[in-house]
């Protein structure tokens, strides 16, 4: 049976790859896409999501715009230095114009209606700040029973990429992330940047994607600014495809190795703001210090077959059958 999936996103180059991964996969029933502020402002993330779907000839998928700012504190900065001024290396306008109108409802309303209408539980893949998902769980407390899993790209176990402590998506709205990850309302999977950096793809992988056909070539054409950033960050010619790694797990549960542990998000205004604290101690050690009540468990992705994952991504993005 196809995986019923909703993507919540802030495109972003790696978001564009993640949307395309779901949109091109025959074993995915992509019910909708919702957008959030993040890498660039909401108007740009919404435009980019719609154009990526148009590139994949998926104007059947509804798109609704969501939160334009975090729940509590303003977002200090965006990621235009990584993704380009428009979020897609300045090449958003090269993508096709969408044939479907933006939904008149907001993201939380669309999320709620899609979940209510589904005849089986739905996987949600938030690959930007978690503002829309936190708002959904707060506004519709009974809706969690319709959610199979929330597969999140975000967090960092060792060090961040936006600050020494925090990864960008979680740092952009730590209060929302704490609500979703520690709230226990729906099963969560966290795919942190510790793993997604290890899944980075190289120049040969990108060349193979570009040679695969018009969609692959268009996706590769979105990468110059992003690839230049990662050439510096990685020290070699390649780039991280963070969000696509999380969507791969949403599509094929078990492609990533998960460890079930409690996770808390730092919401102070100090230098640790946005840090994700995954308690990787043995359960007995957690019980000794936490009185046996460590909080909800989150499936934290810690490993994968790196070559197998890269092959999976390339095959799907190249339009090869599932």
Describe this structure in words.
The chain is of the alpha/beta class. It has a single domain, classed as Inosine-uridine Nucleoside N-ribohydrolase, Chain A. Helix content is 40%, strand content 18%. The protein is built from 14 helices and 11 strands. The strands form 2 sheets. Strands 3-2-1-4-5-6-11-9-10 form a 9-stranded mixed sheet, sandwiched between helices. Helix 1 (13-24) runs parallel beside helix 12. The longest helix is centred in the first third of the chain and has 14 residues, at 42-55. The protein is globular. The model has no long low-confidence stretch (mean pLDDT 95).
Strands ordered across the widest β-sheet: 3-2-1-4-5-6-11-9-10
CATH architecture label name: Alpha-Beta Complex
Radius of gyration, in Å, reads 18 Å
The CATH class, by name, is Alpha Beta
DSSP strand content: 15-25%
Overall average residue pLDDT? 95
The arrangement of helices and strands along the chain is EHEHEHHEHEHHEHEHHHEHEEHEH
* Outline: globular
Work out the helix count. 14
CATH superfamily: Ribonucleoside hydrolase-like
> Helical proportion?
25-40%
Q: Structural class given helices, strands, pairing? A: alpha/beta
CATH fold descriptor: Inosine-uridine Nucleoside N-ribohydrolase, Chain A
Organism: Prauserella muralis
Biased composition (Basic and acidic residues): 75-84
Pfam family, one: IU_nuc_hydro
Protein name: Nucleoside hydrolase
């Amino acid at each position: 049976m196809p995986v019923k999936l909703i993507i919540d996103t802030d495109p972003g180059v790696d978001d564009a790859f993640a949307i395309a991964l779901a949109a091109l996969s025959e074993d995915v029933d992509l019910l909708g896409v919702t957008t959030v502020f993040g890498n660039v402002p909401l108007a740009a993330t919404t435009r980019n999501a719609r154009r990526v779907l148009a590139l994949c000839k998926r104007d059947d998928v509804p798109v609704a715009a969501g939160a334009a700012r975090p729940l509590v504190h303003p977002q200090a900065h965006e990621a235009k230095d990584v993704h380009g001024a428009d979020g897609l290396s300045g090449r958003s306008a090269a993508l096709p114009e969408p044939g479907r109108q933006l939904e008149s409802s907001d993201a939380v309303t669309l999320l709620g209606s899609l979940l209510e209408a589904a005849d089986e539980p739905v996987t949600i893949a938030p690959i930007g700040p978690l503002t829309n998902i936190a708002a959904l769980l707060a506004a519709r407390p009974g809706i969690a029973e319709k959610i199979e899993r929330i597969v999140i790209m975000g967090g960092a176990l060792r060090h961040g990429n936006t600050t020494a402590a925090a990864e960008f998506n979680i740092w952009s709205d730590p209060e929302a992330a704490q609500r979703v990850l520690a709230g226990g309302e729906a099963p969560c999977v966290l795919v942190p940047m510790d793993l997604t950096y290890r899944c980075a793809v190289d120049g040969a992988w990108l060349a193979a994607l570009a040679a695969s056909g018009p969609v692959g070539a268009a996706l590769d054409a979105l990468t110059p600014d992003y690839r230049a950033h990662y050439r510096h960050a990685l020290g070699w010619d390649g780039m991280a495809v963070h969000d696509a790694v999380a969507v791969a797990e949403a599509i094929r549960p078990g492609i990533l190795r998960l460890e079930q542990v409690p996770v808390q998000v730092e919401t102070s205004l100090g230098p640790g703001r946005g840090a994700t604290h995954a308690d990787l101690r043995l359960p007995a050690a957690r019980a000794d210090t936490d009185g046996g009540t460590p909080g909800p468990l989150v499936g934290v992705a810690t490993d994968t077959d790196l070559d197998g994952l890269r092959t999976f991504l390339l095959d799907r993005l190249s339009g090869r059958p599932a």
